[in-house]
Specification:
Strand order of the largest sheet: 1-2-3
Order of helices and strands: EEEH
Structural class: alpha+beta
Number of domains: 1
Radius of gyration: 13 Å
CATH architecture: 2-Layer Sandwich
Strand content: 15-25%
CATH topology: Double Stranded RNA Binding Domain
Shape: elongated
Helix content: 25-40%
Largest sheet: 3 strands, antiparallel
Number of strands: 3
CATH class: Alpha Beta
Length: about 70
């Protein structure tokens, strides 16, 4: 993990894991309202939550970068 990466554990996030629906392509959907726009899809719950953590890390890094450039 590089110095820029922020370590995020799924246990640090309040998240919702939605069961697969046909309208969502029969995939699980995970989202957290703590970070606007933070959501991920996956075939199985574990994959979906792992993807959610990756999206959360990206959002946090981008927000951190934006705060340091202003």
């Amino acid at each position: 993990m590089s110095k820029r990466e922020k370590e995020v554990d799924i246990h640090q996030l309040d998240y919702l894991l939605h069961e697969p629906e046909e309208s969502e392509g029969c995939m699980y959907l995970a989202e957290t309202h703590a970070l606007q726009g933070c959501m991920a899809w996956g075939q199985i719950p574990e994959e979906t939550l792992k993807s959610l953590v990756a999206v959360a890390q990206t959002i946090i890094i981008n927000e951190d970068d934006a705060n340091h450039t202003t």
